[in-house]
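job 3f2a | input accepted
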Amino acid sequence: MILRPKSLSRHPGTLLGAVAVTPPVPVPTWLRRSVPDAQGLAGKDVDDVAFAAGAAIAALDAVVRRQERWAGAWRQRLALSAAAATAKQAGRVEDEAALRDAVLLTRPGDNVGPAGLFLLAWRRLASRPADDLLTEKNVAAVLEDLGLTLNDEAVSDLTDDLRQLAANTGKVETLVGAFAAAERYGFRRVLGAWLADVLLAQRLGWTHAIPLLGAEATFVVGTGRARRPVTAALAAGAETEADWAKSLLAAQARAALRAIDLFAELERRADRLLAVAPKLRAKAADSVVEKLLSDDAIVASENIAGMSDRGLRRLFDRLVELGAVRELSGRATFRIYGL
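job 3f2a | predicted structure (339 res):
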């Protein structure tokens, strides 16, 4: 068993300030090879793809259950990727940097713009308890963020459908059913991805959902065809339910592996931040470190434990100098910092 010195402990407050270091979750080479891309689905059957997806989700589940201190930053970084893909699918030009600016450089309550609302929708999924995400209030809020509308009765019907779906179906049926439910109420794929991520988290008992399918922009109904609603494709006989299930399962598997890879990357960066934290002399340094571990990024003007803008900028400059934090905007002013 390897022990961390107290100054490097990921979980302060344990006996003698030391904890066992949990090794990174390895992803076997066979698993990476068995997860097909959109072009490799033709030669696979549903059982093959479902097996690969199940193995990928199992590996992701092991990562989630570690409950690391930087899990919040990990989820929010995934939310940013999902929002950027959502914006692109909606025909917008905002990339991840522009989405960060839209939300972080806007005062609370001000209009963040359509693309900024996409980010708020995915941040909602990543930050709120998974068990609360499918309430009528939260479903109505995310619909508004995504530029979609339903009357109160339809929102209630949709949430009832989702609860029945979660309670009475298997993994594959739940995944496909989330997208079918979204389309049944006239909504595009992005809502299906959001709902599927929530249902997966609830099925596995995760405290928070992980943004997965929103950033997986490559899956379509079958291969080599223009994107169109799955229900229309099925009704026209152009695709089968098995084709659609394979496409969604493969997308979910790819997204899970991508999330694990990002976790490993942020783990290295978080370890560096925790290693240098004892060297910081600012009184509110602990609060700043926790904020960096729990969110995608921070602006130097943010109010953290009463620190002045100048003091916070000095602290961020020190963290950048120590290689513990990155400046993410590339600007000389209105800078943004994160792992």
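job 3f2a | Residues 1-21, 218-238 have pLDDT under 50 and may be disordered.
job 3f2a | closed
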